[in-house]
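Batch manifest, entry 17 of 40.
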Amino acid sequence: MLRDIIKNRYSARIFLDQEIEQDKINYILDCAIHAPSKQCHYPYYISVLKDSEKSKNIKEWLYWQNTWCVDKIRANPTEINSQRKRFNGQYKAPLVLVWSRDKEFDKDNALADIMVSASFAMLAAEEQGLATCFGRCHDDKQLSIKLETQHPSKIALGIGYAETNDLADELWFPVIKDKKVQGFEHENVSQNYPLEKHLSRQQKSSKETIRFI
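Output type: C-alpha cells
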C-alpha cells in the first residue's frame, strides 16, 4: 500500500554499486512527467544523470564540492560560500534526477510543480524497491552551467539500491576520499531529530501538523 511505502522510506545516503534496471528508470520518469501541473504548464525540465562521464563528474561535484556540510557538521549559514563544504551521499547514487525551473513561467508555480513531480518520482522509485533521497541544488546557477541549460536547477533526487539491514552502521558509515576518512554520514542528517529517531527511521513532525476545522 502507498501508506506503507511512505512510512517505511528513509533518506538514503549510502548506495550500492548496483545498476538500476532500465525498465524501472522508465517507470520512474513516466510517473514524474505525468504528475499534476498547474494549468498543465509542466514548467520544468528533468536531467537524468546515470553513468556517463559527464554525469559522473556532475555527481562528484554535487557530492563533494557543493554540499552543506563543513568539517563533518552541518554548515553554519555564514559558511554558505565556503569551499570546505563536504560530502552529501545521495548524489553518489547510480541515478540522480535534477529538476530545472523553466524561466518562462511564474517561479512559485514552477517550484510547486517541481516538488509534485519529484515526489511522484520518489514514490515510483520506492515502489520499485529502490531507495531515495532529496537534495536541494544549492548553487543552482553553477549546476545549470554544468547541465548546459539556461534554466536554474532546483531539486535533485538520488535513486538506487541501498543496504537496509543494519541501520546503525549505515548512518555511521565513514566517508572516505583520497584514502582518508573525511567524516561520518550520521553528521549529515537533519538536526531537528535525535540520532536515535534516525536509526529507527520513525521521524515525525514535532508540531501538530493536521488541524481539523
